[in-house]
Design brief:
The protein is an alpha+beta fold and 169 residues long. It has a domain at 8-113: Aminopeptidase. 32% of the residues lie in helices and 33% in strands. Strands 1-2-3-4-5-7-6 form a seven-stranded mixed sheet, with helices on both faces. Mean pLDDT is 91; it is low at 163-169.
Length: 169
């Protein structure tokens, strides 16, 4: 008899989540971004999880935790009412719909807070995910993280719209 897969859940961030979220953040960068970023860039990016600001940022944003069988496996944070600041899923569960579930929830929450548009500074490996959801590239950015330059793209979606019709997939 086939065994049912565990149903994912969502819950709010708790301060005691910081260590496990830092581990998800680090594993996600290490295992999912190698095609788009150099090892030095990955190391600099991962080091920001050790900074005290990592936990403070999660606490000050509206941060949601994706869980499987009660254990955190991903997270996303909404900064203010209209900017996705973080979206990370553990590589072991990547591609199972958890990032979609997290972003769906943030889009609803942003709309509920009165936002008509939502922005994200998407890493190179996340651009395709956001584009499929109707986010449009607005500008290319270069940021410095721990003395390394990293590129990302500011993307924007008008809330209440689905994936862009006629967009290349």
């Amino acid at each position: 008899m086939a065994q049912a897969l565990p149903k994912p859940g969502l819950r709010p961030f708790l301060p005691e989540d910081v260590p496990v979220l830092a581990a998800i953040f680090t594993a996600s960068i290490e295992e999912l971004t190698g095609e788009d970023y150099s090892e030095a860039q990955q190391q600099a990016w991962m080091a920001s999880a050790e900074d005290e600001e990592f936990g403070k940022g999660l606490a000050s944003d509206l941060t949601l935790i994706a869980t499987l069988e009660g254990s955190p496996v991903g997270f996303a944070s909404l900064q203010g009412k209209d900017h996705i600041r973080m979206l990370y899923v553990h590589p072991a569960v990547a591609g199972q719909g958890l990032a979609t579930m997290l972003v769906d929830a943030l889009e609803k929450l942003a709309g509920g807070r009165g936002a008509d548009k939502l922005t994200v500074d998407a890493s190179d490996n996340a651009q395709g995910f956001f584009a499929k959801r109707g986010y449009v590239a607005m500008q290319r950015n270069s940021i410095t993280v721990n003395d390394e330059w990293l590129a990302n793209t500011t993307m924007q979606k008008t809330l209440g719209s689905g994936p862009a019709s006629g967009a290349l997939q």
